[in-house]
Amino acid sequence: MTISLFIPCFIDQLFPSVGISVVRILEKLGHKVDFDESLVCCGQPAFNTGCWNEARDVAIRVVDGLKNAEVVVIPSGSCGAMIRVFYPEIFKGHPKQEAALSLAHKIYEFSEFLVDRLGVVDLGSRFPAKVTFHNGCHGLRELRLKQQPRQLLRQVKELTLVEMDDQTSCCGFGGTFAVKFPMISTAMGEAKCASALETGADFLVSNDSSCLMHLQGLLSRKKEKLKSIHLAEILASF
Amino acid sequence: MSSIFESQFRASATKLTADLRHRSLIRKALKGYEKSRDEKKARFQDWEAARQAAAETKWEAINHLDKYLSEFADNLARRGTKVFWASTAEEARNYILNLAREKQAKTIIKSKTMTSEEIHLNEVLAKAGYEVVESDLGEFIVQLRDEAPYHLVFPAMHLTRNEISHLFHEKLGSPETDNPEELTMTVRRDMRIRYCKADIGISGANFAVAETGMIAITENEGNARLTTSLPKIHVALLGIEKVLPKLSDLALFLPMLATVGTGQQLTCYNSMIGGPRQPGETDGPEEFHVILLDNRRTHLLADAEQRDALHCIRCGACLNVCPIFRNVGGQTYGTTYQGPIGSVITPHLRGLRDWKHLSFASSLCGACTEACPVKIDLHHHLLQNRRNAVVLGTGKLDRIAFRGFAFLVNHPGVFGVAVKAGRLVQRLHRLIASSKIDPLRAWTASREAPVIAKESFRQYWKSRHK
Questions:
Q1: 8 Å CB contact of B362 and A177
Q2: Which of B83, B100, B173, B444 is most buried by a 10 A CB count?
């Protein structure tokens, strides 16, 4: 099938290898990947800050741009939740409500797409390391994705998955919250890093690069060896 | 402009988040709770079905509040209870003050009631010259320390046994000990005399049963039972949202509240009170007054989007799982109701302009919504409060910034130029990163900044499809 890829703004600019890994995986599975370069952001930062009108201005472009897509895959639970759960909210009573709902029904977070839509868990990947997995909250609680990334990781050869304490607690990123209330965000991140470090893992994996950006920032400042990596980058190791 | 309440919140949050002793104390205190809560949840045949049933019962009650409240009041009045409808905190306070004056009361004993914290009852009574004592152990401790409860279920959870021992030694003259039973006995000896001396007992209520006209009180120390039965006059102060349609609803709500509130199957004492001493009865108070408090709850009731926040049974489950609460502590909020539920309802009860910051002080992780036994859509309500704050005209700078942002991402050409400029700026930024003059200090004070990639995904895609 033809899969339309949505690459969120920060993955595009800060973590392009996540997008590249997704392309490699989907193509390996025999699908055609399509990418609309004019779609930059889902509008979540504005939405979360209360600026729903500004968020809608951005979202209209996304809804229009993906109108004809068969399915849309996004390598972020957070942006995926914005489109699936919150677009229907901000388009309530808007002329594009139908189009927004239709997009909400055909968008998948990357691990969800592989496991639930394609039924694929084994990609033939090899990644010799001990890893621990952090669920991004939007993926976990808005999209109900908990097992999918773990099912994928368990099939990776030579990879050991160890769970951390308080595995479902938030890392403290939270978008603009991270800079509006940096002291709380940092304290939450420190607790998360401590749990991850306790496992003795080499890598901290997530399906959300935004959580990892925050956690890696804290780990690097403390000169910790633990490295963050997106799920797609591990799965693309074949 | 930030309100005075926001400045206080920020100052206190800055202090508490850096306090590693506080962080580990709260984490440790909640570890035990988490374990027993999960064990008790597992005893329900289907916890999710129980939550659904509870949410539906509260929905019925809140959406027909007019009907159930008058049923509740009529049934109470029939057995001689005096029911007072208080629109404001002041009306409720004045009712109690007048009653105390009329009965020439001197001492007043109280069992735990957050609603009385909400109307600042203790301050007013003390100012009028009455001796007021909290009989709940945790409340008694924070009263001795002259501070607000830390948590709406565990008022003194931020204190260690040693700190409590010092406090008792200093204030009550008891010997230092780290034995919890001895500490409890100190208070018990002190308290027994006060129950007998008190002229008025003031309680809250966990539930108000419309069908039978009864209040239900759930507790572990027996202090509420003594407070409501020994003094000649019993006053119960409760918010109008406490109502449940039927007595049989308690069969679900009592174990549910115990499960998520304290990790118990049921609390040790559960009392149902339906009136003062009836003719022929040998004990119980001579007078029973029930004060039904609105205090802007109807403001929340009028908001169809967030009305479900009135389902709240004040169990504290959302506080216990909230990473914000766990890091900033309950007193930082500066509200009667702490944690996620407090952040949601305080703007409705005390004004959005002053209290909107609590809705922004959240990572929106949703742990609260998942934990709520009556399925209040807590974290989505925080988003709605944020939107309402912007609509109200606050956060103008955010709005301007996001207008610029929307323009940028809707014009990929301009976005491309901005990113190129960003790369250049990032090189310069490294020179000042995390220093005092760094404009990105909110991020870089504790975290390394991410690096803009040499080749963006877009550029990769372009070069691949040449």
A1: yes
A2: B100
